[in-house]
UniProtKB/TrEMBL annotation:
Residues 127-290 form the Integrase catalytic domain. PROSITE patterns: INTEGRASE, TRANSPOSASE_IS30. One of its GO terms (molecular function) is DNA binding. One of its GO terms (cellular component) is cytosol. It comes from freshwater metagenome. Belongs to the transposase IS30 family. The lineage of its organism: unclassified sequences, metagenomes, ecological metagenomes. InterPro entries: Integrase_cat-core (IPR001584), RNaseH-like_sf (IPR012337), RNaseH_sf (IPR036397), Transposase-Integrase (IPR051917), Transposase_IS30-like (IPR053392), Transposase_IS30_CS (IPR001598). This is Unannotated protein. GO terms for biological process: DNA integration; DNA transposition. It holds the Pfam family rve. Required for the transposition of the insertion element.
C-alpha cells in the first residue's frame, strides 16, 4: 500500500477525505507543546556540572549514554544541549554556560568547507623511523609533545599526550623554554610513569628540543621529529592543545600558572570523557592499560 493510500484511508477514505481538515488537524498536533528533554532537573544538574568542567556537548552526551545506558530520561543529544544554550526559548541551561564551551561564543558559527620556531636540529631521527606500533596506537607508551606559548612567545607550558589513552602531562617551565629547561621538565614528568608507559616521544622541529640526544641518553626514551609544516603528524597533541586553550587562552601570560595549577588542569583534562575512547576518560583508559601490563 502506498503512502498516499494509507493517508487517505486513515482520514475517511476516498469519499470522506477532506484535505483542508486533515491539514488543519496535522498543524494543530504539530504545535502541541512537547516537554523538553532538559526539563529533567537531575539531568540538567549533571549537564550543567559537566559544562562547568569544560566538557563539550558531545562529550557530555556520550558519557551520559555510557553511565545511564538503560535510562533514556538521563540521556540527551549534543544537539539538544547546543540548542538549549544558543536558541531563544530553549533556555533550560543557563545562557552564560556558553562561556564553558571551547569556542566561548554566544552564537553558533556557520561552518564553511574549505608550532614553535623551527630550525635544523642535529641528530634528528624522523617520524618515518618511529616503530609501527606507535602509528596504530596498539601499544601504549608513545607520546606526542609540544609547547603552548603565551603572549609574545615570552612564556610557555609544555604538554605531553599519550597516543593510546590521550593522557596528558603538563610541563612547568617557570625559568624559560630553552632546550635545557624542556629537557629537565620532561625528565621530571616521565619519572612518574612505569617504564612500560614511556617508549617514545614525537615532537615538531622546534629548537626547544635541540638537546634531545642528551634527554634520550639520560632517560632511555627515543625522540622522533615530525616533518616540517606537518601538524597532522601530531594530531593527538594538536587536539589536546585546543582543549588546553580553554584553561590557558591565547595572548595570556602562561608563567602565572604554578605547578599545582597545571596539575589541576591536567587532572581536569584526564577526567574528561573522549569520544575516541568510547567516552571513557584518559585516566580510566590509562588505569585499564596499567592493570593489563602489571
Amino acid at each position: 500500500m502506498s503512502t498516499v493510500s494509507r493517508e487517505v484511508n486513515a482520514n475517511g477514505g476516498r469519499v470522506e477525505y477532506r484535505a483542508y481538515a486533515v491539514h488543519t488537524r496535522a498543524s494543530r498536533q504539530a504545535r502541541r507543546p512537547k516537554e523538553p528533554k532538559l526539563a529533567n532537573p537531575r539531568l540538567v544538574c549533571l549537564v550543567t556540572a559537566w559544562l562547568i568542567e569544560m566538557w563539550s556537548p558531545d562529550e557530555i552526551a556520550g558519557r551520559l549514554r555510557r553511565e545511564f545506558p538503560d535510562d533514556p530520561m538521563m540521556q540527551v543529544s549534543h544537539e539538544t544541549i547546543y540548542q538549549s544554550l544558543f536558541v531563544q526559548g530553549r533556555g533550560e541551561l543557563r545562557r552564560e554556560l556558553h562561556r564553558c564551551l571551547r569556542s566561548g561564543r554566544a552564537q553558533r558559527r556557520v561552518r564553511h568547507g574549505g608550532g614553535g620556531t623551527s630550525g635544523q636540529i642535529p641528530g634528528m631521527v624522523m617520524i618515518s623511523e618511529r616503530p609501527a606500533e606507535a602509528d596504530d596506537r596498539a601499544v601504549p607508551g608513545h607520546w606526542e609533545g609540544d609547547l603552548n606559548l603565551g603572549t609574545g612567545n615570552r612564556s610557555a607550558v609544555g604538554a605531553l599526550v599519550e597516543r593510546s589513552t590521550r593522557f596528558v602531562l603538563l610541563l612547568h617551565l617557570a625559568n624559560g623554554k630553552t632546550a635545557l629547561d624542556v629537557n629537565t621538565a620532561m625528565s621530571t614528568a616521565i619519572a612518574t610513569l612505569p617504564d612500560a608507559l614511556m617508549r617514545s616521544i614525537t615532537w615538531d622541529q622546534g629548537k626547544e628540543l635541540a638537546a634531545h640526544a642528551k634527554f634520550s641518553v639520560a632517560t632511555g626514551v627515543p625522540v622522533y621529529f615530525c616533518d616540517p609544516h606537518s601538524p597532522w603528524q601530531r594530531g593527538t597533541d594538536e587536539n589536546t592543545n585546543g582543549l588546553l586553550r580553554q584553561y590557558m587562552p591565547k595572548s595570556t601570560n602562561l608563567a602565572v600558572h604554578s605547578v599545582e595549577e597545571l596539575a589541576r588542569i591536567a587532572d581536569s583534562l584526564n577526567n574528561r570523557p573522549r569520544k575516541t575512547l568510547g567516552y571513557m576518560t584518559p585516566s580510566e583508559k590509562l588505569a585499564e592499560l596499567v592493570a593489563l601490563t602489571a
